[in-house]
Design goal:
The chain is an alpha/beta fold. The chain folds into 2 domains: about 250 residues, Thiolase/Chalcone synthase (Peroxisomal Thiolase, Chain A, domain 1); about 150 residues, Thiolase/Chalcone synthase (Peroxisomal Thiolase, Chain A, domain 1, 3-Layer(aba) Sandwich), CATH 3.40.47.10. Strands 5-4-6-7-1-8-14-13-9-10 form a 10-stranded mixed sheet, with helices on both faces. Strands 2-3 form a two-stranded antiparallel sheet. Strands 11-12 form a two-stranded antiparallel sheet. Strand 9, helix 11 and strand 10 form a beta-alpha-beta unit. Helix 1 crosses helix 13, helix 3 packs across helix 6 and helix 10 packs across helix 11. The radius of gyration is 20 Å and the shape is globular.
Length: about 400
């Protein structure tokens, strides 16, 4: 089994559209959550979102743009960034040994929503000709493969909020086994349309608006937390066989050291300590890492009452008394919950945090919860955290619990 290096990062997110911007704002504790400005906002019980500042007309020619849902635009742009940062010369590579592994929870939901509105609200008997091609879940990965002529495996994973963590984990396994030299892996999500927001609203999991500061409405691990805020964007990383990266003189940004998956098999929405702990343990075993070697944790940390207490319990179950001494970051307070793309964005933030030797803050944690009593790095970045190995948790509806073990660059 070969080691798996990360040699490129690409991001479109509420915190910015480059790794440098995203990291700078995360270190500043900037919260990109805001009230939605859209004609349909008044029809929502709550109107909080975390949106990406992204205009597809600046990045795609009109003929291509007409076939791209917003989710595919995000994914393609992030993939371009990751390839550019890696300085890989694709003309010299065997395209059959480069794969695309992408996770999404809701696919091209904007295109689907537009089609339904045309049929049911406008009374039309027609939808846009490319509605199926824009809305299908595998469109983002397919377009990445087409744009860069990548002939290896092209997979789309949909395991709700752990989708992109699964995509990264599965891609890393293919490279570790020697099946591939390179893989673009990550996720994309664009759910900020009326139909999606209304559906999530019906689940009663979304945060209520903070009366004093709307941007502070997502409060992971705080006693006064009220739910999550939906976000949009994409994060893609270029994974590369370690020897392949070294041979071409690539800058190694980090390592995917292990990947664990465990299913709750109990309830479609209610998480369990046992299932989450099993995923963490599986990841540590896969990486051949002792729990004592974990220096930091990126928590799933949605800000819901159900998840945060269970995740705290799972961390305690795995790490015992030492859990209280591990810095834990929950970054969704800043960038919102990107659903199927959340795991990839948080993997990127974890890699960048290890590079910079910081622990990112869990913002808006002003009212401690006695049941969530670990070190969540409240409200400001912590400098001088020389983490060499950390885990990034991604837990999802359906009980799809996924954990990545990450190592700092050499």
């Amino acid at each position: 089994m070969t080691r798996v290096a990360v040699t490129g990062i690409g991001v479109v997110s509420p915190l910015g559209n480059s790794a440098a911007d995203v990291m700078a704002r995360a270190c500043d504790g900037y919260a990109a959550i805001h009230r939605l400005e859209a004609p349909f906002a008044e029809r929502l019980a709550g109107s909080l979102v975390a949106s990406a500042q992204f205009d597809g007309t600046e990045h795609f020619e009109p003929p291509r743009l007409r076939m791209l849902d917003r989710v595919s635009q995000f994914a393609c742009f992030a993939a371009r960034q990751a390839l550019a940062e890696s300085h890989i010369h694709l003309t010299r590579a065997d395209r059959r040994r480069i794969g695309v592994f992408l996770g999404t929870g809701m696919g091209g939901s904007q295109s689907s929503d537009d089609g339904y509105r045309s049929l049911y609200e406008d009374g039309s008997d027609r939808v846009k000709p490319f509605t199926v091609l824009m809305g299908m879940y595998n469109a983002p990965a397919a377009w990445i493969g087409i744009e860069h002529d990548l002939r290896g495996p092209n997979f789309t994973y949909s395991t709700a909020c752990s989708s992109s963590a699964v995509a990264i984990g599965e891609a890393s396994l293919r490279i570790a086994r020697g099946d591939l030299d390179l893989a673009l892996a990550g996720g994309a999500e664009a759910p900020l349309n009326f139909g999606s927001l209304k559906a999530w609203e019906a689940l009663h999991t979304l945060a209520t608006i903070d009366a004093g500061n709307a941007s502070a409405s997502c409060k992971p691990f705080a006693q006064d937390r009220s739910g999550m805020v939906l976000g949009e964007g994409s994060a893609m990383i270029l994974l590369e066989a370690w020897e392949h990266a070294v041979a071409r003189g690539a800058t190694i940004l980090g390592e995917i050291a292990g990947y664990g998956f465990a299913n709750d098999a109990g309830h479609i929405t209610r998480p369990s300590i046992e299932g989450q702990a099993a995923a963490i343990e599986a990841a540590l075993i896969a990486a051949a890492v002792d729990p004592l070697a974990i220096d930091a944790i990126n928590a799933h940390g949605t800000g819901t009452q159900a998840n945060d207490g269970v995740e705290t319990g799972a961390i305690k179950a795995v790490f015992g008394p030492r859990a209280a001494r591990i810095p834990i970051s929950a970054t969704k307070a800043m960038h919102g919950h990107l659903l199927g793309a959340a795991g990839a964005l948080e993997c990127v933030l974890s890699l960048l945090a290890m590079q910079r030797q910081v622990a990112l803050p869990t913002m808006h944690l002003h009212v401690p919860d006695p049941e969530c009593d670990l070190d969540y790095v409240p409200n400001r970045v912590r400098e001088g955290v020389a983490a060499r190995t950390m885990i990034s948790n991604s837990f999802a509806f359906g009980g799809a619990n996924t954990v990545l073990v990450l190592r700092a660059p050499p």
